[in-house]
Amino acid sequence: PVSQFTQNQANTYHSSSILLQGVSNDVNGVNKVSLYYKDTNSSNWNLIETQANSSNSSTFSWSKTWTPPYQGTFDVKAEAIDLAGNTEHSPMMTNIVYDTSFPTIGKVTLTIDYLGKYINGTSGFLMTVPVNDSLSGINTSSCMYTLDGSTWLNGYYLNHKCTFGISSNQLFDNQELNIRAKVTDHAGNTVTSNIVNRKVDKDLAQSQATIDNAYYGPNSLPLIKGTASDTVSNVTNVNVTLRRRNDNKYWFWGNIWTTFPTMHGVSGKNNWILTQNLPSMQNGITYTVTPYAWDQVHALPGTGIADSFIWDNQAPQNPTSIISTSHTVNGYSKN
Fold it and tell me: Cβ of 35: how many Cβ atoms within 10 Å?
């Protein structure tokens, strides 16, 4: 007899029962067909089922829905016997993978991340997820995001990289962004990762300098202080610059002034104060203090609201020291 599989299952993947289907022919009639399986890495064949041809016809169509006894990779063959007892050289299907287990998927991590809480909503980030399937292997991966917590949108996955099609103008300060990944193996088993929640921090930190009076002098030094805040993440650092208005030079250190802005550290963050000793200053000149504040997300600081004061180190003139003079204009005497 001669048999052939009419449903070729060689090199296929399955997570449920497998259809074994074929036909056997012999001019003198087919008696029965036996189906066998073995582990691909074994030489031992095991009987699945023997189906008898009750009509002893010369053509016998047969089928079997087979569930392998365990997960693995199998070979299957069919052996037909005719009415004279002749057994054929059996056809065989190889590398049939039966896999009912989900792929393993690790935690979603962001390579460009800020304390595991925030994204900056501008420069993007790299999403990584460790995945594995030791039997049928990973077939497809996808990444998804939601801005409202319910509607999940797919990213673009190519060459093991996922890109979210979110333009920066769709993201707003203090908005939540949820991210997850989904992986499917070749057998169709699908697993979804943990959900990663991040808040968008697009705005730079805000700050403001506060100088109580308009004029200061040697006997009344200015108290340079201010505030800083961020609507999403915390303020991490505050610096200030001191600029001399008449030549636009900046205080560097001691009594040295330069054309390049120099940052000076302060004490405190949300409420801060400059504790360094101030340099020598010139009479009648305006000095401007500008604060700069950093938050937990952005590498660049936010430029704050500046405040100014005028340095006055000239003592008031004593009225009694004014010298009285007189002169004559057109015959009139004027004091």
Answer: 21
Q: What is the DSSP letter of 17?
A: -
Alpha helices (H) along 36-139: none
Alpha-carbon Rg of the chain, whole angstroms?
A: 42
Which residues, at least 6 apart from 177, have a Cβ–Cβ distance to it below 8 Å?
119, 145, 146, 147, 166, 171, 197, 198, 199, 200
Q: CB 287: neighbour CB atoms within 10 A?
A: 23
- Terminal alpha carbon distance of the chain: 144
Model confidence at 279: pLDDT above 60: yes
CA distance 52 to 60: 9
Phi, psi of 230 (to 5 degrees): -145, 135
Burial level of 21, CB count in 10 A (0-12/13-18/19+)?
Answer: middle
Categorize the per-residue pLDDT at 316 as very low, low, confident or very high, splitting at 50, 70 and 90: confident
82 in Cβ contact with 59 (< 8 Å) = no
Beta strands in 137-283 (DSSP E): 138-146, 153-154, 156-158, 161-163, 176-185, 190-192, 196-200, 206-210, 215-216, 225-229, 235-244, 249-253, 256-258, 264-265, 271-273
Q: Give the burial string for 58-74 (b: 16+ CB within 10 Å, else e).
A: bebebebebebeeebbb
Residue 211 Cα to chain centre, angstroms: 42
115/332 Cα distance (integer angstroms):
85
Task: State pLDDT tens for residues 16-61.
Answer: 999 999 999 999 999 999 999 999 999 999 999 999 999 999 999 9
Nearest to 156 by CA among 171, 169, 140: 140
Pairing type for strands 225-229 and 206-210 reads: antiparallel
Alpha carbon distance 36, 137 (integer Å): 26
Q: Do 7 and 53 contact (CB within 8 A), yes or no?
A: no
Is residue 192 within 8 Å of residue 180, measured between CB atoms?
yes
Which CA distances in Å does 293 have to 48, 62, 79, 261, 272?
74, 78, 81, 15, 11
**Whole-prediction pTM:** 0.70
Contact in structure between 209 and 288 (CB atoms under 8 Å): no
